[in-house]
C-alpha cells in the first residue's frame, strides 16, 4: 500500500499589467547609437519617454479602467485553441497542458509545465538500474496550477521552484498577447525606426494586513536579512537603543558599500522550546511595524526609506509554516495537500484545493480589487 505524504504548497495572488519593455527599447537605442559618430545626435532616453506618450491608443486598447490586463481574454484564447501552446523561454521548454483546462461560473483553471529533457533511472532494491526511455517528443513535466478569478480579474498562482517561474509565466503570457491582440507600433527618432515592444508583468497583490496577523503570532522559526549596508543602517537608526540590531552598528561601520546577509534560525526540530519569541522579532522589525496601519504601497514616508529585505518564517494557526517578506507583504496562502507518495495529486485534486483556498481569501480580494 502506497504511503501517504503531506506537502505544504504556497500560492500567491497576482494581477497583470501591460507595459512597454524599456530594456528592449534601450537595446535598440544602443544599436542605433553605435552607428552615430556625432555624440550630440545620440538618442535621448528622456525624449523617447516623452514620445511614447503619443501612443496612448495602445494603453486604451490594452488596459481597462484600472490599468489591468483582462486575463479572461488570454485564457479564452487557450480554450479556443487560438494560441501557440508551447514556447522556448531561456533554457526552458514551457507549454500549456490543455487537457487540464477547467472552467466554471467563477474561475478558470489550467496547468503550465516546464518540460525537462533529463533522463531518469528506475531500479528495485538490490537490483540493477534501468533508464526510462523517452521518445523525442516526450519530456519530464514539472507543473504549476493557475486559477483565474473572474469577479476581480486576478490569478492565483502555484509556486514551484522546479517548474515555471513568475518571470517565465509573464513572458509566456506576453507571447500569447502578441499573437492575438498586439499590433506593431514604431516611432521615429533621428530618422531611425524604433519598435515599441510590450510585456505583460505579473504584479503581486499587496496585503499590509499580513503584518497585523504576524504581530499576533508566537511561533517563529527564523528571520533573514538581506540588505545593502545603507539600507541596514536605516533599519538600525530607526531601531531602539536596546534593539539587538542596534549593537551591530559599530561592527558594520567598516563594511560601508557592501551587501550584507545573515539569518537567525531556531532549531525547532531538535529543541521545541528553542524558538524565537515575539519580542525578539518585534524589536528588529519596529521600523516596519510603525507603518502597519496603512497600505504600504500608498505610504509616501515608507517609500522614501531604503529598507533591507527581511523575511520571517513562522507557524500559523493551522500549524502550517509560512514565510512573509516584511518590506513587501503580499497576499498568499499555504495549503496542506495530502496524497499517495507514488500517485501525485491530480490536476482535478489541485483545482479543488485551490478553489477552497480562494474562497478563504475571497473577502480580501473583493475589498482590494473591487
User: What is the arithmetic mean of pLDDT?
Assistant: 77
Q: How much helix, percentage-wise, in residues?
A: 25-40%
Uncertain regions spanning at least 5 consecutive residues: 54-59, 61-66
Q: How would you spell out the order of helices and strands?
A: EHHHHEEEEEEEHEEEHEHHEHHEEEH
Largest sheet: 8 strands, antiparallel
> In terms of structural class, how would the helical and strand content be classed?
alpha+beta
- Give the terminus-to-terminus CA distance: 48 Å
Gyration radius (Cα, Å) is 24 Å
User: How many strand elements?
Assistant: 16
Form type: globular
Proportion in β-strands: 25-35%
Number of helices: 11
Which descriptors apply to this entry?
single chain, 370 residues, alpha+beta, eight-stranded antiparallel beta sheet, four-stranded antiparallel beta sheet, 11 helices, 16 strands, 31% helix
Topology:
Elements: E1 4-20, H1 22-35, H2 45-52, H3 56-62, H4 71-79, E2 86-89, E3 92-103, E4 107-116, E5 120-123, E6 129-132, E7 140-149, E8 154-158, H5 166-180, E9 186-189, E10 192-195, E11 198-204, H6 209-215, E12 220-228, H7 229-237, H8 249-252, E13 259-265, H9 278-289, H10 300-304, E14 309-315, E15 321-325, E16 332-340, H11 347-369
Antiparallel strand pairs: 1-8, 1-11, 1-16, 2-3, 3-4, 4-7, 5-6, 7-8, 9-10, 12-13, 12-14, 14-15
Amino acid at each position: 500500500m502506497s504511503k501517504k505524504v503531506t506537502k505544504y504548497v504556497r500560492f500567491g495572488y497576482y494581477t497583470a499589467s501591460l507595459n512597454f519593455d524599456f530594456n528592449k527599447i534601450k537595446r535598440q537605442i544602443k544599436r542605433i547609437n553605435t552607428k552615430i559618430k556625432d555624440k550630440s545626435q545620440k538618442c535621448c532616453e528622456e525624449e523617447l519617454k516623452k514620445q511614447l506618450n503619443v501612443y496612448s491608443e495602445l494603453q486604451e486598447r490594452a488596459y481597462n479602467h484600472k490599468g489591468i490586463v483582462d486575463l479572461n481574454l488570454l485564457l479564452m484564447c487557450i480554450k479556443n485553441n487560438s494560441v501557440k501552446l508551447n514556447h522556448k523561454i531561456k533554457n526552458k521548454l514551457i507549454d500549456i497542458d490543455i487537457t487540464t483546462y477547467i472552467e466554471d461560473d467563477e474561475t478558470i483553471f489550467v496547468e503550465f509545465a516546464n518540460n525537462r529533457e533529463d533522463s531518469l533511472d528506475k531500479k528495485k532494491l538490490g537490483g540493477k538500474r534501468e533508464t526510462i526511455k523517452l521518445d523525442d517528443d516526450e519530456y519530464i513535466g514539472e507543473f504549476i496550477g493557475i486559477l483565474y478569478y473572474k469577479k476581480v480579474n486576478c490569478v492565483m498562482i502555484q509556486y514551484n521552484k522546479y517548474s515555471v517561474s513568475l518571470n517565465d509565466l509573464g513572458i509566456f503570457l506576453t507571447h500569447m498577447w502578441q499573437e492575438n491582440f498586439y499590433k506593431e507600433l514604431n516611432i521615429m527618432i533621428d530618422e531611425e525606426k524604433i519598435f515599441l515592444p510590450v510585456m505583460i508583468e505579473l504584479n503581486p497583490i499587496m496585503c499590509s494586513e499580513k503584518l497585523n496577523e504576524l504581530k499576533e503570532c508566537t511561533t517563529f522559526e527564523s528571520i533573514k536579512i538581506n540588505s545593502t549596508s545603507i539600507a541596514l543602517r536605516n533599519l538600525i537608526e530607526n531601531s531602539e537603543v536596546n534593539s539587538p540590531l542596534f549593537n551591530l552598528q559599530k561592527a558594520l561601520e567598516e563594511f560601508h558599500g557592501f551587501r550584507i546577509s545573515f539569518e537567525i534560525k531556531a532549531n525547532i526540530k531538535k529543541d521545541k522550546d528553542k524558538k524565537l519569541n515575539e519580542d525578539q522579532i518585534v524589536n528588529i522589525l519596529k521600523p516596519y511595524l510603525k507603518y502597519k496601519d496603512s497600505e504600504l504601497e500608498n505610504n509616501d514616508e515608507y517609500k522614501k526609506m531604503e529598507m533591507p529585505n527581511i523575511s520571517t518564517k513562522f507557524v500559523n494557526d493551522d500549524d502550517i509554516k509560512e514565510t512573509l517578506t516584511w518590506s513587501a507583504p503580499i497576499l498568499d496562502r499555504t495549503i496542506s495537500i495530502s496524497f499517495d507518495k507514488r500517485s501525485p495529486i491530480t490536476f482535478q485534486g489541485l483545482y479543488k484545493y485551490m478553489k477552497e483556498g480562494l474562497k478563504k481569501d475571497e473577502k480580501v480580494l473583493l475589498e482590494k480589487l473591487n
